[in-house]
């Protein structure tokens, strides 16, 4: 047993020796490999050594894939870059032709198509816009073809940049609404005068359409004559000014009166600069006063003084004109500083005084109609539109204190022409001279035929000469009195004016 164990032990020791030899051989091999590794490249190692080196280094080279890390220098990607850049540039250039919009923008577009389903609009975007029928106007619904036509350029609001069909959703109604309030606001700030059509007359004022804006004109802001009614304005186009804008309440208030005032001022400025003395203008009689008539020349009023209404004397303008008459007037004077215009009516009528000296001669007896009284006598109308004065001393053969004691207004009497002064527009008349002539004539007719010598007729001649001298003195006195009377009458008339 002991032998067995011993033998076993010996064998074990022998095995250890063999193992030691193997280890030694491995060490030597490793040592040789170290010597071969740093060998210069000029010395070519044997194939066996290379295999040996390779075999020994394999376990220490697990990071071999790392050598391929710079795999992406992308030489193949480089040629693809130009084509990719070209695509991006082309796409960007195409898209650059379209505008960038966002919801809420108000844009203009061209109507491409109109049918019962809506309106297709080109708004210069990558997709066309669609307006549904209910978004075309405030009325809602209706026939789209009655609202817009193909080719129309319209303003629209972008509601949505893309619906499920790919269209841009638009609204003309909302754009019109925004445009309306902007327009009203600008008109209010700039005090712009607008033209508006009267749609309806209500108890408190007028409903108007002013360039697409519906507003209200209170009755107090309507510029109308007392006899005019609000209903008479329906259908008319009037000028208006915006005096209140309230989008929250949806209210636009306008004034006809303020617009008329501004228009009137502008027209007055223009007209007053155009008026010149000597012009003939058309006008409308607006008002009659005791001292004359006011005539509207189309923005400014002028006055026809009482003395300029007719060549014959006029007591009141109503004798010649009435309110509302449309007449031609002659411009006598223009004061641009005070904006006063003097007009004449008689200047456009034939001047009867131009032929007065030919029509009437002194000592001529004619018919005359008593027109009016003055404290110094009575005015009488002759034919051809002329007037003469019968001085109070010439009304009767007896002394008269009051013209009414001798004649009455409207009486037609025989008068004798005493003098004709066309330059002064005066004719002196006498009733007394006619009566005296008639008395003399009657006396001559009643007297018996004279039996005196042929030399006796000289006495009446002397008597006639004596009367003629007295008449001449009296004539001068009457002329002086008439002239004073004329002056007094003019002064009285000027006091009234």
Describe the structure.
By secondary structure, the chain is an alpha+beta fold. Among the domains are: 106-177, OB fold (Dihydrolipoamide Acetyltransferase, E2P), CATH 2.40.50.140; 191-262, OB fold (Dihydrolipoamide Acetyltransferase, E2P) (Beta Barrel); 275-348, Beta Barrel (OB fold (Dihydrolipoamide Acetyltransferase, E2P)); 356-446 and 474-496, Nucleic acid-binding proteins (OB fold (Dihydrolipoamide Acetyltransferase, E2P), Beta Barrel), CATH 2.40.50.140. It is 32% helix and 28% strand. It is built from eight helices and 20 strands. Strands 1-2-3-5-4 form a five-stranded mixed β-barrel. It has a five-stranded antiparallel β-sheet with strand order 8-7-6-9-10. The N and C termini lie far apart (178 Å).
Shape: rod-shaped
Structural class: alpha+beta
Query: Percent of residues in beta strands?
Result: 25-35%
CATH level-1 class of the domain at 356-446 and 474-496: Mainly Beta
Q: In whole angstroms, how far apart are the ends?
A: 178 Å
The averaged pLDDT comes out at 77
CATH architecture of the domain at 356-446 and 474-496: Beta Barrel
């Amino acid at each position: 047993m002991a032998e067995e164990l011993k033998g076993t032990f010996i064998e074990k020791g022998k095995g250890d020796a063999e193992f030691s030899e193997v280890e030694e051989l491995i060490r030597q091999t490793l040592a040789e490999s170290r010597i071969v590794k740093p060998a210069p490249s000029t010395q070519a190692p044997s194939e066996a050594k290379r295999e040996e080196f390779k075999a020994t280094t394999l376990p220490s080279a697990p990071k071999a894939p790392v050598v391929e890390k710079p795999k992406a220098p992308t030489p193949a990607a480089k040629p693809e870059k130009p084509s990719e850049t070209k695509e991006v540039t082309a796409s960007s250039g195409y898209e650059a032709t379209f505008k960038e919009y966002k919801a809420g923008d108000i844009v203009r577009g061209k109507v491409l198509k109109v049918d019962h389903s809506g309106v297709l609009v080109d708004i210069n975007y990558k997709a066309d816009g669609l307006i549904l029928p209910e978004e075309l106007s405030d009325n809602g619904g209706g026939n789209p073809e009655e609202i817009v036509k193909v080719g129309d350029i319209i303003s629209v609001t972008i509601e949505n940049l893309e619906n499920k069909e790919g269209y841009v959703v638009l609204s003309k109604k909302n754009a019109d609404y925004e445009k309306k309030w902007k327009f009203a606001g600008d008109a209010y700030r700039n005090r712009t005068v607008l033209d508006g059509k009267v749609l309806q007359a209500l108890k408190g004022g007028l409903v108007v359409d002013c360039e697409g804006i519906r507003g209200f004109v209170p009755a107090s802001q309507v510029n109308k004559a007392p006899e005019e009614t609000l209903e008479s304005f329906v259908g008319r186009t009037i000028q208006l000014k915006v005096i209140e804008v309230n989008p929250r309440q949806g209210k636009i208030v306008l004034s006809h009166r303020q617009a008329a005032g501004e228009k009137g001022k502008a027209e007055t400025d223009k007209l007053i600069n155009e008026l010149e003395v000597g012009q003939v203008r058309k006008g409308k009689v607006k008002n009659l006063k005791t001292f004359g008539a006011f005539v509207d020349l189309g923005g400014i009023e002028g006055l026809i003084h009482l003395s300029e209404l007719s060549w014959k004397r006029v007591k009141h303008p109503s004798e010649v004109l009435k309110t509302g008459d449309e007449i031609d007037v002659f411009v006598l004077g223009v004061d641009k500083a005070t904006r006063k215009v003097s007009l004449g009516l008689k200047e456009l009528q034939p001047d009867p005084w131009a032929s007065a000296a030919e029509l009437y001669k002194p000592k001529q007896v004619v018919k005359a109609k008593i027109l009016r009284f003055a404290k110094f006598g009575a005015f009488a109308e002759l034919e051809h539109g002329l007037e003469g004065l019968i001085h109070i001393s010439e009304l009767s053969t007896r002394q008269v204190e009051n013209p009414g004691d001798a004649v009455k207004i409207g009486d037609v009497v025989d008068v004798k022409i005493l003098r004709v002064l066309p330059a002064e527009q005066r004719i002196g008349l006498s009733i007394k001279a006619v009566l005296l002539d008639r008395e003399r004539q009657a006396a001559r007719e009643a007297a018996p035929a004279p039996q005196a010598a042929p030399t006796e007729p000289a006495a009446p001649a002397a008597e006639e000469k004596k009367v003629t001298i007295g008449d001449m003195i009296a004539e001068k006195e009457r002329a002086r009195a008439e002239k004073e009377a004329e002056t007094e009458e003019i002064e009285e008339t000027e006091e009234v004016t």
